[in-house]
Design a protein that fits this description.
Blueprint lengths: L9 H25 L2 H4 L1 H21 L19 E4 L5 E8 L2 E6 L4 E2 L1
Antiparallel strand pairs: 1-2, 2-3, 3-4
Length: 113
């Protein structure tokens, strides 16, 4: 007797396609509605971390914080990431993530919040 080749049933194929569609839809909704910071603001974090590195290097070599980013060789006008010297020992770096919301790096805690 010849062995018959089994093919997946139409219902099984449709169920698999529906499952893949639902999973992809869920991922897309997560990315669009959840707007994870690491994905949508990656460039801002990269720029912010570069500012932090330059400011810390400046502080180490000059024994004080720069007044502006121009002192560390960066043009503040085109960055969309901002620096502010709070006092002689503290500074913040921040960028906006939405209306009235921002991500801020504090030099005392050394964390983005």
């Amino acid at each position: 007797m010849p062995k018959s080749v089994q093919t997946p049933s139409l219902a099984r194929t449709a169920l698999f396609a529906l499952t893949v569609f639902i999973v992809l839809l869920g991922v897309m909704l997560f990315l669009l509605l959840g707007r994870p910071l690491w994905l949508f603001h990656r460039q801002y974090f990269k720029t912010g971390n570069e500012i932090v590195a330059r400011v810390e290097s400046f502080r180490k070599s000059h024994a004080h914080l720069p007044e502006t980013l121009k002192e560390v060789g960066m043009d503040e006008e085109n960055l969309n990431v901002f620096y502010r010297k709070m006092n002689e020992d503290e500074y913040i770096v921040w960028f906006g993530i939405g209306v009235g919301e921002s991500e801020t790096y504090n030099s005392l805690t050394k964390k983005w919040e």
